[in-house]
Design a protein that fits this description.
Blueprint: H1 7-24, H2 41-59, H3 74-93, E1 101-104, E2 107-110, H4 111-133, H5 141-151, H6 156-159, H7 177-184
Helix pairs in contact: 1-3, 1-4, 2-3, 2-4, 4-5, 4-7, 5-7
């Protein structure tokens, strides 16, 4: 991974990893348990598609809608995810989008920070889906390390609120960066 890669490029790479896991959540694994409390694999997919759509809408100047949800089917979920990822890419690649501050339900946030949060979120949920479908998650070590470094920049009041990420868990120092990221975000390895 290039050392000065921008947040949209990081998100694109994370979305490619997540898309592979979304593709693996077929009808037989749609209701499989995930490390996310109260969310099965299908619900995680619906959550990340809705999230990408909402953050793309914010970049286009639309208000963030806390009630926005998606109802997807396993057969078309991969296409829906990729369409949402492309919309996210297009919206945040627009001139000035990353440098604009957006009013979110939790306060004013720079665009680059919103995109970096989505970058972290996509990798975290790719990890969750990998557990649900019992398939190895292949992530470039530098990409996962970049997500972990950025996640550590948030204070606990920002990142450890109900419905987001739980208390950090222990991970072996020699664990792959994606597992250390998952543990930092509250997942048990």
């Amino acid at each position: 991974m290039e050392p000065d890669i921008g947040p949209v490029d990081l998100l694109d790479q994370a979305a490619a990893v997540a898309a592979d896991m979304v593709d693996r959540v077929g009808p037989d694994r749609w209701h499989a348990a995930t490390p996310c409390e109260e969310l099965d694999a299908g619900a995680v997919v619906e959550h990340i598609v809705a999230g990408l759509e909402q953050f793309a809408a914010v970049a286009r100047g639309e208000p963030y809608d806390l009630t926005h949800q998606r109802q997807l089917e396993a057969a078309t979920a991969g296409d829906e995810y990729r369409a949402a990822g492309q919309a996210m890419h297009d919206a945040w690649s627009a001139p000035g989008a990353l440098n604009t501050t957006y009013g979110m339900p939790w306060g004013e946030v720079p665009g680059a920070v919103l995109v970096e949060f989505m970058f972290i979120e996509e990798l975290a949920h790719a990890w969750d889906l990998a557990r649900a479908v019992e398939h190895p998650l292949v992530v470039d070590e530098d990409l996962a390390e970049a997500a972990l470094t950025r996640a550590r920049l948030y204070d606990d009041d920002t990142i450890r609120v109900p419905g987001m990420f739980g208390p950090a868990q222990e991970a072996p120092a020699d664990a792959p960066a994606i597992d250390r990221l998952a543990a930092f975000l509250g997942r048990n390895l």
